[in-house]
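Many introductory courses stop at the sequence. We go one step further.
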Amino acid sequence: MDYLIELRKYVGHRPLLMVGATVFVFDEHNCLLLLKRRDNECWGPPGGAVEPGEVVEEAAKRETLEETGLALENLSLYGVFSGADQFYRYPNGDEVHNVTITYISRIQGGQVRISPEHTDWKYFPLGEIPSEISPPIIPILKKILADLQDKS
């Protein structure tokens, strides 16, 4: 995040192109791990910005470890999302056009410990996903849920 903080000193709140890595973590019961963000009070999966020179998959693992305390071994690339529905204005006024690279991971246990960026966490059954989802995650989550429904 240091890179973006430095960049913001020069561009202020103006829109930036941001590459992010997000992991949809499922437990052994096929429940989805979501974290409640402190800044917008919405739920979303672990993830964040890729640092310059960082391998995206490593960024996904790093962000998940930082935000949940979970060390992931296996990631499956799910998709890359960009476009108008990936624009986001943070509560502080910063604007980004996200290119979100998403992964799916299944875990067999581990204790979740959330970071100060979040206020709560929960594994949600797929039929009980909360409506307060962080805006750029909504179209991705809808696609994942539709794909999972098609497979069942």
